């Protein structure tokens, strides 16, 4: 049995490996060894007298041909159990996980035959019991920032420096239809929005994504929150703040991109939501994305002076796999 553990730091003397999760122009970078038909994240063994960061940079250059890039550490990790490196079940090796953004490449001069660039994670891993866990941990720690791009629009993790634009571009004032469909009040003070934004950034059980327009304006949010990591369950919510971009497929695209992130990178088992009965467009979007009706809370909310239903929906990991397989 192979066990992968994660640490904020470990003694430098224990570090033997560096693995670098890499992207270029928003696409994942994977390597194919000349003697294998599988793919892997770039990385390798630390040489004698070499610092761990220098090992990471060297391996990235050798295995991908990277020339210009930025690189930063995510965390330390260990692998315990019998592998091609560990000779016994009790042996444990340690390394550092990095993320890198590559801007230019040259020809590869190593044991790697080629690299592939992909919008999605691969399925035929060289190390299926280890490297997918590294990807998952990087996502959990917020190092996977952009999860979708389309026609100049992007879905990316919120940052502290977005706080003022988030408020000024969307809450001055908040569109009344947004308030109606999400069930929130129509007016918020700057202090209320800033407090909510900061708490969202600090919440370890929430992934707070912003939807941005080609000109950089924040036009919506797509959120996975209330994550129960043991159960593998999370809640989904989305809001398109700007009236002029609604009805153009942005909400559908953002819903599907966030759904894929939940199952592909966070490895959740279940993603759930609720939508009000007076939001048929929203329910149609969720049905298209694979969510299924699980129940109705009758007359559970008010739409003005009228009672309305709260519709409960969810998609399971198996539903998502079948959807992606075209079944």
Task: Give a brief rundown of this model.
With 327 residues, this protein is α+β, with helices and mostly antiparallel strands. It contains eight helices and 16 strands.
What is the ordering of alpha helices and beta strands? EEEEEHEEEHEEHHHEEEHEHEEH
CATH topology of the largest domain, by name, is Aminopeptidase
Note the beta-strand portion. Answer: 35-45%
Mean pLDDT: 94
CATH architecture of the largest domain: 3-Layer(aba) Sandwich
User: CATH superfamily membership of the largest domain, which one?
Assistant: Gcn5-related N-acetyltransferase (GNAT)
* Count of separate structural domains: 2
Helix content: 25-40%
Largest sheet properties: 8 strands, mixed
Which segments are poorly predicted (pLDDT under 50) over 5 or more consecutive residues?
A: none
Number of DSSP helices? 8
The count of β-strands is 16
> Radius of gyration over alpha carbons?
22 Å
Shape: elongated
SSE arrangement:
Blueprint: E1 3-7, E2 15-24, E3 27-33, E4 39-40, E5 43-45, H1 52-64, E6 66-80, E7 92-105, E8 112-118, H2 131-140, E9 146-150, E10 153-157, H3 163-170, H4 176-182, H5 190-202, E11 207-212, E12 218-228, E13 233-240, H6 250-264, E14 270-276, H7 280-288, E15 292-303, E16 306-316, H8 317-324
Parallel strand pairs: 2-7, 13-14
Antiparallel strand pairs: 1-6, 2-3, 2-5, 3-4, 3-8, 6-7, 9-10, 10-11, 11-12, 12-13, 14-16, 15-16
């Amino acid at each position: 049995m192979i066990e992968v553990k994660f640490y904020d730091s470990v003694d430098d003397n224990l570090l033997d490996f560096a693995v670098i999760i890499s992207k270029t122009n928003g696409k994942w970078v994977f390597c194919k060894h000349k003697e294998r038909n599988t793919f892997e994240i770039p990385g390798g063994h630390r040489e004698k007298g070499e610092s761990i960061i220098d090992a990471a940079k060297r391996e990235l250059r050798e295995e991908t041909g990277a020339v210009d890039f930025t690189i930063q550490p995510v965390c330390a990790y260990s692998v315990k159990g019998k592998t091609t490196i560990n000779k016994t079940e009790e042996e444990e090796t340690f390394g550092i996980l990095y993320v890198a953004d590559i801007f230019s490449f040259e020809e590869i001069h190593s044991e790697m035959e080629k690299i592939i660039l992909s919008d999605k994670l691969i399925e035929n891993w060289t190390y299926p019991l280890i490297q997918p866990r590294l990807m998952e941990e990087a996502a959990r720690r917020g190092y996977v920032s952009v999860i979708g791009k389309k026609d100049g629009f992007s879905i990316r993790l919120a940052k502290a420096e977005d706080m003022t634009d988030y408020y000024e571009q969307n809450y001055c004032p908040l569109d009344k239809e947004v308030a109606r469909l999400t069930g929130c009040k129509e007016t918020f003070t700057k202090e209320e929005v800033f407090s909510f934004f900061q708490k969202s950034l600090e919440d370890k059980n929430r992934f707070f994504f912003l939807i941005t327009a080609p000109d950089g304006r924040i036009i919506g949010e797509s959120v996975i929150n209330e994550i129960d990591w043991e159960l593998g369950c999370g809640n989904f919510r989305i809001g398109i703040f700007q009236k002029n971009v609604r009805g153009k497929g942005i909400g559908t695209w953002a819903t599907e991109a966030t759904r894929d992130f939940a199952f592909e990178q966070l490895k959740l088992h279940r993603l759930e939501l609720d939508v009000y009965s007076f939001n048929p467009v929203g329910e149609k979007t969720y049905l298209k994305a694979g969510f299924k009706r699980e129940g109705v809370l009758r007359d559970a909310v008010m739409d003005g002076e009228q009672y309305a239903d709260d519709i409960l929906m969810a998609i399971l990991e198996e539903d998502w796999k079948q959807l992606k397989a075209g079944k």
